[in-house]
Predict the 3D structure of the following.
Amino acid sequence: MKQARGNIDLITPESCAEIDRWISNYPADQKQSAVMAALRILQDQNGGWLSHELMDAIAAYLDMPPIAVYEVATFYSMYRLEPCGRHKINVCTNISCLLCGSEEVVAHLQERLGIKLGETTADGKFTLSEVECLGACVGAPMMQVNRDYHERLTPETIDAILDSLQ
Ligand code: FES
């Protein structure tokens, strides 16, 4: 198996401690099971996105092949592989949200922020993305802003949410 050669010095002591807590949840020979948590922790450490260097550092820290880390990071939409805004807005456009008005939600957000899906505002404050079902169909239409879910959206509630963010 190819050895990971990432630089674990890129991981702050605080992040190491948090990853170690996750590793302790698994058998000693299964520390790779902490990879999803480690990706989330380093994404937070890095202002919301993961560089290749950070993913390589995770591979080295968890003693796993870098490709295995990339596979996880590219599979799930909660991991970002490019720089993004301070606030990440993920709008669900899957079937329940679509039937309940997600097209209007997207249109309102695009109009209000002056950007298209997949873009970041010029001031670096918001990144707007389209995602698959986030498991909150009962509250459709919904969006996730950073870690918070917002449901039964209307133009008015969307404006209030955006206005509350620094
Ligand atoms: S379809 Fe939008 S949360 Fe499930």
Summary: Helices lie at 13-23, 35-45, 52-62, 66-75, 95-99, 102-113, 155-163. Residues 92, 94-97, 133-137, 140, 142 surround FE2/S2 (inorganic) cluster (CB under 6 Å).
